[in-house]
Each structure stands twice: as C-alpha cells, then as structure tokens.
C-alpha cells in the first residue's frame, strides 16, 4: 500500500480505475457462474461493456477535447456494421471464434476511424455549437445510409447494393448480411464478457495514456484556451484530429462488440437517442472524469433492468436528472448555495473537533 | 410541370422549417444558446390544438390560439426554470440542459398521450388552387403555410427594427452588458424572445400537422433538427438567414426525395449542410466571428 501512496496523483487515480474494472469483471464472472445473476442481467453484461467503452471514448471528445459530439452513435454504427460484415465474410477462412471477433473489432475500429477522418475536415474548421450540429448531421447520415444498404455474400464474394436483396442478383444459397432497414441479420454471437472486459482495458489504456502524454496535455491546453495554446506553438488541427479519431476508433470497436452480441442489429439501434444516452453517461459521471463515466454507464444500464416496473418513467427521470445535474454543477446560484453548505459543514466539523483548531 | 409542383411543395415545407428556424435563430442571437427543446415545443403545440379541436370541440381559431398561448407560457417557464440559472455557464452545459428539456417534453407527452399516432385533421379548409388548366394544383395548406410564413417574416423584421422591445432585443444580442447599462431589462427581453419563438413554434406545429397529419411525441424532433439545420445553414442569429435557410432546405429535401432517393433525402439535407459549413463556417448569411484575445 505504501508504494501506491508514493505514486503521483494521476498514476494512483489511473491505478484505481484499472482496479475497479478488474474487480468488477471478477465479481460479475463469479456471480454469473454461481447463478446468482438473473438471466436478463447476464444478457446485459456485454452491452454494458460496449457502453462503458462508448463512455470512455466520448469522454475523450467531450471532456478532454472539450467539443460536444452529438453523433457518437454514428461511429458505433459504422463499427458495428463493418464488424458484422467482416465477421460473416471470414466465417469460412477463420474458424477460431475469438480470433474472428478480434479481426472484426479491429476492422470495425479502423473503418470508424476512416469515417471520422472524413467528418474531421469540417469539424476542425468549426467550433462549439456548429461542431455539435455537424456531428449530429453525420450520425443521421450514417443511419440513413444503413437504412438503404443491402449487403450479401455468395461464392463470388461480397455484393453491395442500395435497392433490395433481390437486386444484388446473388447465387442460390447466398447469405444476407445487411438487409436495409432490418439491419444486420444472421450474426453468429461471438462477443463474450471476457472480450468486453479486454476491450474496456484496452480503451482505458489508450485514453489514460493519451491524457497523460505530451499530446494529451496539448489537447487539454487547446480546450482550456485555444488562442493561448496556439500562441505557444500547439497545432489545433493536429491534436484535435488525434483526439477525435482515437475517440471514433474506440466507438467503432464498441459498436462491433455490441453488434456481435446479438443475432440481429437494426440501424435504428444507433440513432440520436443512443448518442444522447452515452452523453448522459459522460455528463453524470462528470465531464472529463473517465472513472465517473464508467460507473455511470454501468449503473444507468443496470438500473432500468432493476426498475422494470417504472420503465415508462425511465427517460423522464433521465431528463430531469440531466437538467438538475447541469443546473447544480453550473448554475451560479446553485454553486453559491453548495459552497455555503460546504462552509457550514466545515464550521460544524471544526466545532465538533473541539479545541483542535486553536493552535492550527 | 412536376418540377414546378415539387418546387411549390419544397417552398411549403421550407416555410414551415423557416418558421421553426426563426425561433431557433432569435433565441440563439439573444441568449447565445441552442434551444434544442424548440422542436418539442412544436409537438406540444400540435397536441394542444389537437386536444382543443378533438376533445373540447373548439373551432379552428380558438384551438390555434390555445396552442400558441400554452406554448408561449411553456417557453417562458422553461427559460426561467432551466436556462436562466445557467446564463453564465459554459455553452456545453446549456446545450446539454436543452437536450434534457427536450427529452422531458417528449417523455411527458408520451406519458400523457401515449405512443400511438393521433390523426390530426387539417385546420385549413381552403380549396386547392388550380393553375394551367388543372395541371398544377396547390393545396390549401400550402397556400396558408406560405402566406403565413411571409406575414410572420415581415412582421418580425418590422418588430425588430421599429418597436422598442425589438430594438432592445437587438441591443441585447449585440452586447448584453452595454444594453443593461442603457437601462434595458435583459431578463425580460430574453423572456420576450423565448415567448415569441415558442409562439411561432406552436403555429409551425399546427401547420406541420395540417400538412403531415400524424401526431406523435416524437413528431417535433426531426423537423426541429432540420429547422435547426436550416438556421445554421442560413447563418444562425440572422432572421433573413433563417428564412433563406429554411426554404432552401425544404426545396433540397423535396427535390432529393423526388429525383434521388426517398430514403436518402435526410442524408442529402445533412450532407448539404456539412458542405455549406465547410465553405462558409458561419452559414450563408452569418457574420464572421472575430475572436478577441
């Protein structure tokens, strides 16, 4: 323990984050094998992992880079469908399930990264609200494109079209991979809790190290004061691009993980609401606080399962909580009020400590 | 002739977007915030008019009036409760709060009216206008929408340039601190802006539901996002910009639907937005922002 105390503050905090994730993994592994966990909760384990990765990745954009992204689910969608296509087309050549999942996740991440490069061109020219609207537009475009995307596979390889499955003119016995509005069909479930856990560790490793690095400090300097940062020679385009693309790659990987947990996934799954859901995780966990985002993602995914009878009120509660958190943490009056409470608490504490403060 | 009729449909849809975008743009100009909940005020307006006309059996005009009044009050109350405490907060916080308000309105509507779509009977009973020996017909809703858009637009321009409150609004959007020093009540000016914007949203809601007669708790969100896009497209903060952006967006959408692909029309609209922002980062009629160090 004394060794941990000697480490500097950031390293210690990162250490705690890793420890929490590892302990949570071990606990959920024990619970699910001991049969204490309900079936519906066990089915939620992989989606929770995917959402945790999403929360980590969006935190990089919103918290560290300081730009609001309203289309993060778009990258998730790109990753999900690319990953599914990869996994199904490799079904015969790569027989090992985990290896196929790994390849799918990597390709899904890379594809999301490529898309983010395309979006990054306008994104880097814009700031604040304009940037938010472009990411929103991007998310909607992706959803629309997947809606009229038809992908199938036969012995000649992949067929891609935008009209219908029949229009692809495939041989008999061909596999349909993406069927327009129905989304991806016929997925072999490959995602496991272990895969999710490893992906969380990977994204934590990437993001925490990025934050701690020279580039991470440059990104945060740009967030805090762009003009000052530019004047000391930090290139906004380079560092923002770095953060944005990293964030998108992680989101794409999370998307693949998520999609490979179901037998069918529709494009509707990755709409504006999902983007907002992930944003809620980040905001409730504390913007820029990676650990908080992870905890919020886990709690907010489990909570609706536990409160099934109140499911109608779930989104309403989210909305109210979102507004209240924002007002309490950012409102001038609320902040003064909290300060006053803190002050009086400190006062009471001092009093109850007795004469301890006399010489202090 | 189909081109002409598509053009007219586009202008009609664009007029609705323009009315909604006016609310976005005015609020942005004065409070420097994106009121994401604006689209849901449209939905509330639609439901209010629907309830008044279907359940209470009121006429068309009282129904519209009720919708406008309730939405105006709603806009002011939301501003007072949710946005006012965040006047000096970072824009990210305000934007997230607005998203929260939007979700709040949608889910409240879901609890009250359920998720099944309601069929909205058109408030317009004008006959369609037949031109060129009946080759081109313009429906009553289209006529009313376009005419009301022109009236609202003219009225707003006159209001902001001639009246005292309008001038106060422009002053506050220019420089809040200086306006306050000149004796302008900033808080009430912002409230008036929200009131006007929300009232317009209610009107847009009624017009939208008359043209596309299904009413659901999520009815407002897509037109809201598109009107927001229109406001950004035309240069957010500028009233003529909202008008131009809205109508162009409507035309692009209808033409995209007619000539490219029905399913991809939304994607086309958003792609055009991204391209416009690439070329002119502050929109078509927006003023360039100079940053002071």
| Biggest beta-sheet profile of chain B | 2 strands, antiparallel
Gross geometry of chain B: globular
Determine the structural class of chain B based on helices, strands and strand pairing: mainly alpha
> Which value, in Å, is the CA radius of gyration of chain B?
19 Å
Describe the largest sheet of chain A: 3 strands, antiparallel
Instruction: Please indicate the count of domains of chain B.
Output: 1
What separation lies between the terminal Cα atoms of chain A? 29 Å
Share of residues in helices of chain A: over 70%
Average pLDDT metric of chain B: 84
Mean pLDDT of chain A: 83
Query: What is the β-strand count of chain A?
Result: 3
Radius of gyration of chain A: 23 Å
Low-confidence stretches of chain B: none
SSE string of chain B, helices as H and strands as E: HHHHEEEHHHHEHHH
């Amino acid at each position: 323990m004394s060794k941990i105390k000697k480490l500097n503050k950031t390293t210690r905090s990162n250490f705690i984050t890793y420890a929490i994730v590892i302990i949570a993994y071990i606990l959920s592994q024990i619970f699910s094998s001991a049969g204490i966990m309900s079936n519906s909760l066990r089915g939620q384990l992989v989606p929770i992992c995917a959402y945790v990765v999403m929360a980590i990745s969006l935190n990089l954009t919103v918290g560290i880079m300081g730009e609001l992204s309203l289309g993060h689910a778009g990258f998730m969608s790109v990753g999900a469908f690319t990953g599914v296509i990869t996994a199904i087309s490799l079904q015969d050549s790569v027989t090992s399930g985990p290896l196929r999942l790994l390849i799918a996740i990597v390709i899904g991440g890379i594809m999301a990264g490529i898309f983010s490069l395309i979006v990054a061109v306008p994104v880097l020219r814009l700031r604040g609200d304009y940037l938010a609207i472009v990411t929103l537009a991007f998310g909607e475009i992706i959803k629309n494109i997947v809606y009229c995307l038809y992908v199938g596979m036969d012995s000649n390889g992949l067929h891609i079209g935008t009209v219908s499955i029949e229009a692809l003119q495939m041989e008999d016995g061909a596999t349909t991979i993406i069927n327009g509005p129905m989304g991806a069909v016929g997925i072999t479930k490959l995602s496991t809790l272990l895969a999710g856990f490893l992906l969380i560790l990977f994204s934590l490793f990437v993001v925490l190290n990025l934050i701690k690095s020279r580039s991470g400090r440059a990104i945060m300097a740009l967030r805090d004061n762009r003009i000052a940062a530019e004047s000391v020679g930090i290139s906004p385009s380079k560092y923002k691009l770095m953060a944005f693309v990293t964030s998108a790659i992680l989101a794409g990987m999370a998307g693949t993980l998520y999609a490979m947990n179901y037998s069918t996934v529709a494009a509707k799954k990755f709409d504006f609401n999902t983007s907002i859901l992930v944003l809620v995780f980040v905001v409730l966990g504390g913007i820029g606080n990676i650990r908080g985002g992870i905890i919020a993602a886990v709690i907010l995914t489990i909570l609706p399962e536990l409160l099934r009878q109140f499911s109608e009120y779930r989104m309403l509660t989210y909305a109210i909580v979102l507004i209240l958190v924002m007002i309490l943490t950012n409102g001038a009056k609320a902040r003064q009020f909290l300060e006053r409470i803190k002050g009086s608490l400190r006062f009471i504490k001092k009093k109850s400590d007795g004469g301890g403060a006399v010489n202090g | 002739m189909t081109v002409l009729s598509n053009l007219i449909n586009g202008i009609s849809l664009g007029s609705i977007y323009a009315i909604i975008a006016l609310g976005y743009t005015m609020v942005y100009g004065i409070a420097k915030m994106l009121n994401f909940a604006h689209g849901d005020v449209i939905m509330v307006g639609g439901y209010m008019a629907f309830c008044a006309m279907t359940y209470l059996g009121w006429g068309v005009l009282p129904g519209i009036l009720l919708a406008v009044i309730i939405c105006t009050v709603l806009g002011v109350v939301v501003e007072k409760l949710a946005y006012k405490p965040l006047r000096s907060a970072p824009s990210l916080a305000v934007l997230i709060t607005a998203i929260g308000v939007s979700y709040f309105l949608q889910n409240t509507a879901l609890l009250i009216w359920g998720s099944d779509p309601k069929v909205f009977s058109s408030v317009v009973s004008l006959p369609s206008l037949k031109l060129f020996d009946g080759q081109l017909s313009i429906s009553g809703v289209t006529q009313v929408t376009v005419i009301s858009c022109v009236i609202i637009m003219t009225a707003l321009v006159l209001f902001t340039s001639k009246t005292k409150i309008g001038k106060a609004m422009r002053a506050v959007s220019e420089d809040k601190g200086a306006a306050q020093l000149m004796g302008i009540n900033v808080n009430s000016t912002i409230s008036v802006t929200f009131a006007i914007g929300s009232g317009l949203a209610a009107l847009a809601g009624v017009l939208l539901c008359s043209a596309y007669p299904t009413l659901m708790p999520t009815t407002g969100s897509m037109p809201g996002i598109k009107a927001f896009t229109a406001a950004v497209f035309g240069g957010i903060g500028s009233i003529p910009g909202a008008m131009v952006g809205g109508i162009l967006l409507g035309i692009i959408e209808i033409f995209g639907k007619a000539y490219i692909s029905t399913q991809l029309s939304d994607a086309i609209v958003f792609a055009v937005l991204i391209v416009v922002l690439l070329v002119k980062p502050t929109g078509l009629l927006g003023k360039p922002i100079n940053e002071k160090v």
